């Protein structure tokens, strides 16, 4: 269809759609005005014949131009039926003329309510379809969404019917206007925006269903409508597809500013290029073949940033709930651990010992600790960060000089003595450590070893545990919190080593009280845009923990649980991670040149 022709058809559709409404309004106003002046239904015959002629012409025109809608049929039929009644049974005709608008809404209600019960398409389907390609309106979700819409409209019609029966004013003319305008306004304000927006909203929110695309082309057409904007926030990517086999397709998806569009052809600078057999890609998209498995088995190729593949399915799936696992308890041993608390307001001074060699941009342990500090500062605490990577701290040589020759003083005149002073003055010490081989980082371990001068060589038994008493009597009790990020998705059998260290420090150092352990599994996923929600949850939990530690002296277990929830199933995690590493392998940049032992 040529552009001009298309425009003309669209105009005719609009006009023929409005005519039935105008006719009902005209009959309602004219007829009632005439009846008011004492005229009988018979006196309206000429007017009604003209009205019927206009309505019928409108139907014929719509039919010829193929723009006849559900609405035009419904409204026109009721009006024609009413007009016919005036001629056949004038008494009933008068009743009809007096209540033409109410009759219209009653008819609309019935047309909305009954057809779907008998298996016919919801009437809204016809309207919603206009805004989506065929591939989308064939989707089962789309049909069910329209069913919801259909019944919302049935409700709106029932409400409109009731509104036409209300006496708004004693003024006849004004009553006529209000009786007509109030229900129409209600429909325009509530009904039309709902019809336009609800399918989009529900498609984005609804539970994931298996797709059933019959061709890749159809799938690409549908993809822009299936973008999960919750997950796409901040994404700016171009995914080029080069598909061959049953369908030969060169086209690209652009995801930017929470919108997705598909264009045919080659993009000049795609961020990712997927080269695949079209049937395989269709099967992956329909969920018949695992994309991860296909990738690992090199059934398709990826060039450029393969990271987007980790998130592709989630970007186009409304919910990833099926991939979620039950919240893991932060409890490492499987038995509950009692963390220590202080009086509200006790913690005023916090020293953070950061042992991640990474920068702020990359360290996930530091990300948590920084939020904790921000929360503590918001509650009025004074904080100080010590970055171990910038300090010179020698290994402990176990010479015991700090216990013998120079009690409380180490042989090394490096940065450690100053840091020890800082932690002795602090009300709360925060350890920040990456999880390295199931334990704290080497940097933190060296630091911990060098705390020996704080203890006396004597041994005492406290609660059945052998320990060394504190050397400095003036030292007040202080709290200990640990933040650690680990790459694996588990907390148990992964962070146990760190937990054992800090729990033992808590029970063996007389002044140290372990207040909380924050273990972040699957840490590297946090930088993926699709896990933004998890990142926000983690950040909020850490911030609140810092704030509460200062204000209430207690850190709630729930904050630790939020942090320790990997938000991903172990198998899915493993598949995604392998896919990622495989993609790097594909570039031959990471394994090339690996030295061989023999
Ligand atoms: C030497 C080394 C050992 C690691 N060992 C583990 C481990 O035992 N368990 C684990 O889950 N992740 C392990 N990882 C992954 C890191 O814990 C993960 O990348 C973490 O985010 C690092 O913390 P950061 O981001 O605060 O520096 C290891 C990483 C390195 C470099």
Describe the protein.
The protein has 21 helices and twelve strands. The longest helix is centred in the N-terminal third of the chain and has 34 residues, at 3-36. With 598 residues, the chain is α/β, with parallel strands linked by helices. Helix content is 49%, strand content 13%. Helix 15 (364-378) packs across helix 19. It binds flavin mononucleotide. Flavin mononucleotide binds at residues 356, 358, 362-366, 434-438, 485-488, 494, 523-524.
Sheet of most strands:
5 strands, mixed
Instruction: Give the tally of β-strands.
Output: 12
Mean pLDDT: 85
- What's the alpha carbon Rg, rounded to whole Å? 36 Å
In terms of structural class, how would the helical and strand content be classed? alpha/beta
Bound molecules: flavin mononucleotide
What kind of assembly state do the chains in view correspond to? single chain
Poorly predicted residue ranges: 318-330
Portion of residues within helices: 40-55%
The outline comes out as elongated
**Number of discrete helical segments:** 21
Physical arrangement of strands within the biggest beta sheet? 3-2-1-4-5
């Amino acid at each position: 269809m040529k552009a001009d022709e298309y425009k003309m058809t669209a105009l005719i559709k609009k006009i023929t759609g409005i005519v039935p409404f105008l006719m009902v309004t005209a009959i309602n106003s004219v007829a009632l005005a005439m009846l008011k002046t004492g005229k009988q239904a018979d006196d309206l015959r000429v007017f009604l014949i003209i009205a019927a002629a206009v309505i019928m012409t409108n139907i014929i025109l719509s039919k010829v131009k193929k723009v006849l809608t559900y609405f035009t049929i419904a409204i026109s039929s009721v009006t024609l039926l009413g007009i016919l009644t005036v001629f056949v049974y004038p008494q009933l005709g008068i009743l009809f003329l007096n209540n033409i608008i109410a009759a219209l809404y009653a008819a609309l209600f019935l047309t909305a309510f009954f057809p779907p019960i008998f298996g016919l398409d919801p009437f809204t389907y016809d309207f919603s379809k206009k805004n989506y390609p065929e591939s989308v309106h064939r989707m089962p979700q789309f049909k069910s969404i329209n069913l919801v819409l259909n019944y919302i409209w049935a409700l709106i019609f029932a409400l409109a019917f009731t509104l036409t029966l209300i006496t708004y004013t004693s003024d006849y003319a004004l009553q006529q206007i209000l009786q007509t305008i109030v229900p129409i306004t209600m429909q325009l304000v509530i009904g039309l925006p709902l019809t336009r927006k609800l399918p989009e909203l529900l498609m984005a929110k609804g539970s994931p269903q298996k797709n059933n695309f019959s061709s890749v082309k159809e799938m690409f057409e549908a993809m822009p409508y299936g973008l999960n904007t919750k997950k796409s926030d901040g994404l700016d990517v171009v995914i080029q597809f080069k598909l061959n086999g049953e369908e030969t397709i060169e086209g690209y998806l652009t995801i930017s500013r929470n919108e997705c569009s598909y264009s045919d052809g080659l993009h000049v600078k795609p961020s990712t290029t997927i080269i695949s057999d079209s049937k395989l890609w269709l099967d992956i998209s329909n969920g018949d073949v695992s994309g991860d498995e296909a990738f690992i088995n090199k059934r398709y190729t990826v060039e450029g940033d393969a990271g987007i593949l980790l998130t592709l399915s989630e970007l186009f799936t409304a919910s990833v709930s099926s991939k979620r696992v039950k919240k893991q308890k932060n409890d490492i041993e499987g038995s509950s651990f009692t963390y220590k608390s202080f009086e509200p307001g006790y913690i005023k001074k916090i020293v953070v010992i950061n042992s991640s060699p990474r920068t702020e941009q990359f360290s996930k342990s530091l990300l948590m600790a920084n939020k904790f500090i921000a929360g503590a500062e918001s509650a009025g605490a004074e904080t100080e960060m010590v970055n171990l990577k910038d300090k010179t701290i020698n290994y402990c040589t176990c010479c015991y000089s700090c216990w013998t020759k120079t009690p409380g003083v180490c042989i090394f005149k490096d940065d450690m003595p100053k840091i020890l002073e800082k932690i002795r003055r602090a009300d709360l010490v925060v350890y920040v450590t990456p999880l390295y081989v199931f334990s704290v980082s080497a940097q933190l371990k060296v630091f911990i070893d060098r705390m020996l001068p704080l203890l006396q060589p004597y041994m005492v038994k406290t609660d059945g545990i052998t320990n060394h008493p504190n050397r400095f009597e003036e030292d007040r009790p202080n709290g200990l919190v640990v933040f650690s990020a680990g790459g694996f998705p588990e907390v148990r059998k992964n962070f146990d080593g760190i937990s054992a260290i800090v729990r033992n420090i808590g029970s063996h150092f007389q002044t140290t009280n372990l207040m909380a352990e924050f273990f972040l599994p699957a840490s590297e996923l946090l930088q993926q845009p699709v896990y933004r929600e998890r990142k926000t949850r983690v950040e909020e939990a850490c911030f609140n923990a810092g704030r509460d530690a200062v204000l209430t002296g207690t850190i709630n277990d729930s904050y630790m649980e939020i942090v320790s929830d990997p938000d991903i199933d172990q198998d899915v995690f493993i598949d995604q991670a392998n896919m990622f590493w495989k993609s790097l392998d594909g570039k031959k940049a990471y394994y090339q040149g690996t030295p061989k032992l023999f």
